[in-house]
Design goal:
365 residues; 41% helix
């Protein structure tokens, strides 16, 4: 499932450093604006202790975790919506992503240049918001012109588009992002067609200094207050610490380093899980002697949809699925034990897959 999270923010806030920690790709990281021009794309592994637990029980030949693509997009500046600072290229990169990880500088360091001369994460957030909103307003107004006349004469489909676009335009004119007025009743396919930048879900990632790695700081508190009405999650990490953790060779070294810092896990693990949740994804597992594997699906996907992630033939010829809840599998220790205890269920085409299900598909093509 090729889903992407795009890392955005002003220049020099730690985006590329964070990207390098998240993925196997190595973006250049330097103390000057526009270090990143072409977007770097990497594949990140979603940490999931359940996968390792299943592998302990099944003892497969290989273990395959689930992944999400992450894109390091060059820093935006004021005027990006009008093409300033290579803005059109950057905004196009954001448009191709499914969700946004908005990195905010929440640390003081006179040795790291800030593009606006001072540290103010709320102001920085607003700079990015305004540029994305202006670009969306341009898009929305152009689309309204195309459907307005048909909507006025009562053409049903045109009126549906006009009403949604008008609601979004009103929000944008007030300085609000499109996501703040989109409801569960709005047609996702229609919204995807509009390709609005501010309709994308967003996770605010506060990059803090080392001493704030476990508690956050006043900058983080200000960000949380500023986004309180956005229904958006805010997390904090220390990109410099994450870079050190990523450079360590062995799990033992990483564990010792984390313990010394008072951390239970790398901050990027928290970020990856939050990004996975942001995209409304979940995981199911297949478990056999050849491999134990995690598969990514959307929340609410049915059995056939989940099967289709493995191969399109599985979805086309779906008959049924044998399903074991993760907790039952771990408690009883094996598929055979679950079957003997009546914990293996047979589910049809309407079954909504649950996060953590261990599944085996029967199909015929």
């Amino acid at each position: 499932m090729a889903l992407k999270c795009g890392i955005v923010g002003l220049p020099n806030v730690g985006k590329s450093t964070l990207f390098n920690c998240l993925s196997n790709a190595k973006a250049q990281a330097a103390n000057f604006p526009f270090c990143t021009i072409e977007p770097n794309v990497g594949t990140i592994t979603v940490p999931d202790a359940r996968l390792n637990k299943l592998a302990e029980l099944v003892k497969p030949q290989r273990i395959v975790p689930t992944t999400v693509e992450i894109v390091d997009i060059a820093g935006l500046v004021k005027g990006a919506s009008k093409g300033e600072g290579l803005g059109n290229q950057f905004l196009g990169n954001i448009r191709e992503c499914d969700a946004i990880l908005h990195v905010l500088r929440c640390f003081d360091d006179p040795n790291v240049v800030h593009v606006d001369g001072s540290v103010d994460p709320v102001r920085d957030k607003e700079v990015i918001d305004i540029e994305l909103q202006l670009k969306d307003l341009e898009t929305v107004e152009a689309r309204i012109k195309k459907v307005e006349k048909q909507a006025q004469i009562g053409e049903k489909e045109a009126k549906r588009r006009f009403d949604l676009l008008s609601r979004i335009r009103e929000a944008l004119l007030k300085g609000q992002s499109a996501r703040t007025v989109i409801t569960a009743n709005d047609d996702p396919a229609l919204l995807n067609e509009f390709q609005l930048l501010t309709a994308k879900p967003v996770l605010y990632v506060c990059n803090v200094e080392e001493k704030s790695a476990t508690t956050g700081n006043t900058y983080v508190d200000k960000v949380k207050a500023a986004v309180a009405n956005e229904n958006a999650e805010v997390i904090f990490v220390t990109a410099a610490i994450e870079a050190e953790i990523a450079s360590l060779e062995t799990p033992e070294e990483r564990e010792m380093f984390l313990a010394d810092m008072g951390l239970t896990e790398p901050g990027v693990n928290k970020l990856i899980r939050a990004a996975y949740h942001l995209l409304k994804l979940q995981t199911y597992f297949t478990a056999g002697v050849q491999e134990v594997r995690a598969w990514t699906i959307h929340q609410g996907d049915t059995g056939p949809k989940a099967a289709g992630v493995i191969h399109s033939d599985f979805e086309k010829g779906y008959i049924r699925a044998e399903v074991i809840a993760y907790d039952d599998f771990v408690t009883l220790g094996s598929e055979a034990a679950c079957r003997a205890a009546g914990k293996l269920r047979t589910e049809g085409k309407e079954y909504i897959v649950k996060d953590g299900d261990v599944m085996h598909f029967l199909f015929n093509v």
